[in-house]
Amino acid sequence: RDFSALSDKGQLHTQLKTARHECDESRKTASDLQKKVRQLEAVRSELEAQSQQRGKHQGSIEQDLNKTRLDKKLLEEQVSTLQGEFSQLQAVISDLEASKRDLQEERRTLHGQLADHATVTLSLSETRGEVTRYEKQVSKLEGEARKQQEEFHRAADIAMQDKKQAVSDVERRVRAEMASVQDRMGAMMRIVSAIQRELGEVKAARRNIQKEVSGLQQAVGPGIKTMRKQITSAITEIDTTNKELVRKYKKEMMLRKKYHNEIVELKGNIRVFGRVRPTIKEDGTGVQAEHVVTYDDDDDGLLSVVHRGSTKTFELDKVFQPGSTQEQVFNEVKALLISCVDGFNVCIFAYGQTGSGKTFTMEGYGANPGINPRALQELFTATEERNKDWDYAITVSVMEIYNESIRDLLSDSPKEAKEVKQSRNAADGHYVPGLTWIRVQTVEDVHEVFALGKDNRATAVTDMNEHSSRSHALLCIIVVGTNRTTGIRTVGRLNLVDLAGSERISKSGSEGQRLKEAQNINKSLSSLGDVIHSLKLKSSHIPYRNSKLTYLLQDSLGGDSKTLMMVQVSPVEKNSSETLCSLNFAMRVRSVELGQASRRTETSDSSSARDRMAEHGVSKNTSRVCCHWPRNSYNVYSAQPARAGLHERWPAGSDSRPAP
Q: Is the model more confident about 100 or about 350?
C-alpha cells in the first residue's frame, strides 16, 4: 500500500507537470493572441493607408471589410478553442482535487493502520513527512495553476477587448470611408448628369450648325463649282502656255546653239566645254567639301560659282555635270572628231587644276574609256563605212612635254629629248624630228599603243592627286584617205592633249623633283595663257616660242584647225579659287577667233608626182615609207619590223613625219 501510495504520488506529480505544460501552452496561445492583435493593428494601419487613397473602387473596401470580418471569425474560433482548453484544465484540476481527497482518505486509513502497527511508526512518520512535502508541492502547484488561470483569464479578457476595439475601429473607419466614397460617387453622378445635359445641348447646337452649313453649301455650292471650274481652266491654260513657252524656249535654245556653232565654224572660235568632276576623298569633309558650283536647269551651257559670298556665272558651249558619263561627253565631241576623216585638222585639249579629272576625261580606264580610245574606235568605224570608195591609213604617235623637254613615248628611249622644228613648207606646220609613228588598223593595236604610252608617261603622288600627271601628254593621229575613183587624197590631223594640272605648291605639298616639275608645268600653262591673251587681242606678235607646249600647239591655237578646250573644274569650296581661275581662262579662250578651218586635199596629179618622186629614194630590195616631205626635200626611211599586233612603224630620223 505504501508503494501504491508512492505510485499515486508519482502520477500526481506527472499530472502536475502536464498541467504546467498546458499552462505554458496557454501562455504561448496568449502571446499568439497578442501577435494577432498586433497583426490586427497592422491591418488597421494598412486599412487607414488604403482609406487615404482616393478614387479607389468601393469593391476593394468591401473586400477589406470582408477580410477583417473573416479575421474576426478566426479570432472568435481561437478564443472558443482557448475556452475549451481552459475547461479541460479545470477538469484536470478537479481530477487533481479528487486525487487529493483520495490521498487524504488513504492518509486517514494509514493513520488507523499506524495505530494498529506501531512497528511501522518510523516508516509512517517518514512517509508522512514525504506526504506533507508532496502536499505542500501540490498546494504550491495549485496556487500556481490558479495564478496562471487568473492570468489567462485576464489575457483573454484583454485580447477580447482589444479585438472588439480593433474590429469596432475598422468598422467605423470602413463605414466612414464608405460614406465618403458614396459622397464622391454622388458628386461624380451629379457632374456626369451635368455633362450629359451639356453634351445634349452641344449635340443640339451641332445639329443646328450642320443644318446651317448644309443650307450654306446648297446656296454657295454652285458658285464654288463654277469658281473651281474657272480656276481649273485657268490653271490648265497657264500650264499649256508654260509648256508651249518652255518648248519654244528649248527650240530657240537649240536654234541659238545651232547658229552659234555655225558662227563659231565661220569665225573659227575655240569651242569650250566644261566638266565638273564628282567629289573625291582628297576634297576632305566639312565646310571645305561643300559644293559651290550650281547649274541652270534650262540652259546646259551655264554654270555659277559661289566664292566669298558672291556668285559669278559663266557661259560655255556645253556644261557636263558630275553625273555625266564618258559616253555623253564623247557624243558631244564626236562630230568634231569625224571631221578629221574629211581632211580637217582637229585639236582637243583638257585644261584644269591638278586632280580635276583631265586624264580621266581624255584617257579613262579599261572598262570606262575616255575620249582618246573612243576617238580611234570612231575613226575606225567611220573609215570602214567609207571603204567602198576610199582607202584610209591611220597612224599614231604619243609624246609628252616633261620639264620643257619633248619625249617620244613610243620609242625605245622614251627619256631622250626631242625638239620642235618649223617645216620648210609653211603649210606643213611644225613637226618633231625623229618622232615614232605607228600605223594602227585594229582596236588591239590602239590598246597596245596606249599601254606603251601610259607606261612611259611621268606620274607621281601629291597631296592633291594620288596619280598626278607630271607632264603634258599629246596623242597625235593622222588620217590619210585616198579616193579610188578620183585619186583625191585627204590628210586630216587629230591632236588630243592632256595638259598637266596647274597646282599651288602650298596645297600639293610638292618638293624636290616634284617641285621642279610643278614649276615647269605652271610656267608652260602661264605661257599658254599669254598666247591666248595675245590671240584674243589679235596682237601682231604671238609668244608661241615661250614654251615647248605653245610652240608645239601653234598650228592648233593659231593655225588652220578646229579646236575644242575641255575645262575641268572641282565642285567644292576648297578649290573655288582654282575653279574661278580655270573658268576665267576658259572664257578668254572661248573669245579667240582662229578663222574658218579649211579641208586639206590633194589632186591625183600632185599625189602621183609625190609618189614618183618618192620612188627615186626607194630600193627594190627594201620596203620604204615616206614620213615627211618639206618643200624641195623628200626623206624616205626603211620600215622596221612591227611590234606584236602592229602593222607598220616609222623609226626615228630627221624630218620623220607620216604623209601620203
A: 350
